[in-house]
Hints:
Layout: H1 6-29, H2 40-53, H3 57-65, H4 70-103, H5 112-118, H6 125-146, H7 151-154, E1 157-161, H8 165-176, E2 180-184, H9 190-196, E3 199-201, H10 204-208, E4 214-217, H11 224-230, E5 241-244, H12 250-259, E6 265-271, E7 286-293, H13 298-312, E8 317-320, H14 323-345, H15 357-370, H16 374-382, H17 387-421
Parallel strand pairs: 1-2, 1-4, 2-3, 4-5, 5-6, 7-8
Antiparallel strand pairs: 6-7
Amino acid sequence: MVEMSCEDHDRYAASSQFITHTVGRILKESMLESTPINTKGYESLLGLVENTAMDSFDLYYGLFMFNKNSLEMLEKLDLAFEDLRKQLIAWLHRVVRNQLIENGERLHQLDGSNSHALHRRAPNESALLHSSFNDVALLNSFASNNSSQSDENTKLKIAIVGFGNFGQFLAKTIVSQGHEVLAYSRSDYSDVARKLGVLYFSDVDDLCEQHPGVILLCTSIISTVKVLKSLPFQRLKRSTLFVDVLSIKEFPRNLFLQHLPHDFDVLCTHPMFGPESGKNGWKNLPFVYDKVRIGNEESRILRCYRFLDIFASEGCRMVEMSCAEHDRHAAGSQFVTHTTGRFLEKLRLKTTPINTKGYETLLSLVKNTGRDSFDLYYSLFLYNLNAMEQLERFDLAFESLKKQLFNRLHSIYRKQLFENEQ
């Protein structure tokens, strides 16, 4: 039971009710759909859309029309989204301008014909599920057969390049499964590595001289090109397996195929969880992968499955799909989620004495997306071919909703004018 003045109620409700319904209706107009790789944040947005869609537009219009604070909140939402869009475009403009000045060419320029040649045809949904099912079955079979094999044959030597928070997070579980882990990073993480049971190298040449079977890139999206080009490929075995864990997939896939020697294997992955969401275990958390280029030799095929089994044995929901298919789904499940969280963050939303469940969802979303750097969000925008389309759809949905509200206002006022004249 909450006693408060009617004035206080409407002031709080302009946030806890009107903003919640507005965001839900914008997302509904954006035509969000469930994907095979939904994040928890995206699931919460889908739930918000479903809940607000149950209410009539008359109810929403009433929240707007009869609460004097609602117009101010709508204006703040509009300005916040416009500010976020300007931030993205300003960053893009600066990057492209610098690239043009330094190199005389655009950033991330791809040869269209080569790009199409590299991309495999994205499988349909049923094919995805069938493929994932087969791989899970193979992984389970592989895990059971491993019990009769020696550690020497089943354990991997994995070199993690980029030993920041996420690299350390993965290393902890990989080491616990008995694999040998080496690490290299620009910063000195030797103390952390020692505590985790990881052999740390301050020189990447020395790391590669150890001939790891797997090179696991845990770098940021922006630094991936520079890091990949800096690796001494000649010091590695010609059959080395390269794996990435980036949040976008076509970009690293093209990088690997363009810059790695043809003898190297390529596995693109996306563990759709991190130190926070995976702190209590990885069970049922999605792990997306694409076996881009794996040699035909049995040892190389088994090595790939041994690596995938690191995640399968922890209970991850293993989802195999092409990099192109991943990025199409991720433009919704990731980019839209981060966009919503980031523009709401600009409103500095606060908890109220009358929070609704929907408003609690938005507060939680703001908190979670706020933990990630703007660099990550910008990378989701820049390196995913589908992100600009999603941004435009969000913008059009917001404009459509405002038009609906203002058209209703206009029609009511016009009707009153004619009635008064009569």
